[in-house]
User: Fold these one by one.
Assistant:
Number 1:
Amino acid sequence: MLRYTVRRLILTIPVVFGILVISFMLTRLSGDPTDLILPPDAPDSAREAFRRINGLDRPLISQFGTFVVNVFRGDFGNSLRFHEPALSLVMERMGATMELAVAVMAIAILVGIPTGVVAAYMRNTPVDISVRGVSLLGQAMPSFYLGILSIIVFAVWLRWFPSGGRGTWLHLVLPATTLSFQLIALIARVTRSCMLDVLGQDYIRTARAKGLSERRVVWLHALRNAFIPVLTVIGLQVGFLLGGVIVTETVFSWPGVGRLAVQAIYARDFPVVQAVVFLFAMIFVLVNLIVDLLYAAVDPRIGYR
């Protein structure tokens, strides 16, 4: 497993370089940040000084080379808007984002997997049909639309939860449930499909013939053998989660990295955008590596060479 892990880490080097290239080029394609950072009546001398101080007057190749060298030193530059190190700004907001992300994944896993198991076990019953219908609705409804509806119903009409901000656990309920709704739908559908394949296998019939309880057969033997595809989907949905955090944090005024990224994009704050993209991409790569390593824990027949 150690050799496999080291090989995977080595393969992330071209991935990291590709992320740096894409994040650098896409931010530059958005235009010159000078017009947004400086006031409209700023003189030409101030504009030229701003570009010179921030290295925007140099050729793109030179800017990219400096950017790559500084990134490997842990320096993404200073924010054009806040005049602080971009990485420090992102890390200050990372705690709020991770709090939201962990809550979303916990809700999605704890609700989605049992729902999919029950739907598979009660196939073609009203329970199964309801789960499939809600799952279809959950994957079709955009998270920002669901977030606005939840604010109107639960914050404005019923006054059960705050409409935005971060503080107590009540502030976490609406954004976490809104963002987890699509994940619950997907995990439930995948779990149901995998469980239906496993429940028809011979070893399941053998386990029942041996007199094992139905609960043990379904939740231990069947679910464990059906869990690898579900685990893969959970790992891949980290990318969706990181993208959904940006929208959800904006809707609910959650002070996390996603909201900071939106503000930086509007202001063409290149260093902050690049830092956010790089960190999100690294989290996605790391989570998928962890998922690959967990396969052996779920199924001992899997080995790494």
Number 2:
Amino acid sequence: MPERRTHDYVRNGLTTLFAAFDVATGEVISALHRRHRAAEFKKFLIKVDKEVPAQQVHLICDNCEDHRVPQGAGA
């Protein structure tokens, strides 16, 4: 049964989860952030780059606006 909300529902905070899944090992690389901006996404990508050995990586990103920041912005 899906959870339902009334018209007066108020969210109490926000947490952003970024996650990467290594298909070969089953390992999950994750990061929690209080904000959901390009700067946090960039930090997550740097973390993935450090933790994954030199190999081909495929990224699947949703339609989130923080993926569309011009190069050099959001640092």
Number 3:
Amino acid sequence: MSKKKRLKKIAEAIAEMGAGRFFYHIEKSSKKDNIDALISGINMMAEEIGEALLHEGYVNSNETIKHIVLMNFIIDLDGKIKAVNQQACDILFYTCGEIIEKSFDLFLNEKSAHKWERLCNMLKNKKMVDTSITLTFKTKSGLLVPSACYINKLGGEKKEVESILVTVVKHSKRQVELEEYLISKENNKKESSQKNNPFTLVDNRKKVKLSSTDVLKIREVRDFFMDNLEKDFPPIKELALEFGTNAFKIKYGFKELYGVSVFRFIRNERLRKAKMLVQGSNISFKKITQLCGFKSVPSFSSTFKSEFGYTPKELRKKFSAENP
């Protein structure tokens, strides 16, 4: 693929992100140049922002959302698409007529097409199956949509009515925080019911309400962290004075807006930046340690492995092997 086409795909992906759609990724080439490094960064940024927005919308909504359905396909046993939802057409940039009766694997990248073929061969010999698989879809313009898919083989009295239902969902990776939120929400309901019951003890603790000014201050503090990850940060009390708020509101606000403590937020962002540099650059691990605010290379390596399951060296080697 030419440099011009690769840059065009980057522009398309950024345009989609600007419109609030963060599930698109860009396919990497085998060139390992600055454009590929930029693509790695954009892909990771899209994933992280998408996760953050999903989580923030979740904890601030009245609805309980753990998985968002993006696309639905009904496929016959020959692999042809018989029905599709409108959102799938919108995401893939095809009309319904361009998808119906086409082979499902035409809308997957090469690696996923092979995975789908193996799965289809297995499904043909089964009566009814419920399973899951990760597939990467390819849009009409060449952008990628990595997706978790639930696969259900639907049975029927006759062989010809059997079909496969593919449901594409967006998961939140922050499942622990989401579960904690549900528990706290349930506890709040119990506390509220106890207050209305004269025969129960009353808990006088009240949930703090953050004003729009408080939220702006907390976001300013977040931006300060994001822009200075390589530095040692002052105590929360000092930081609060500098930003014209108080330590409690910063601590409470981070938990409320981002689902994590201040310490965990900084740690997560340092690791996110480090992972991007490990995968998308040839910068030494000593330099990455400095750029991401870790105290020493051994400390960085240990924390990195605890989070991602690989040391920085192992992950870079694995990433290079998968993206020759």
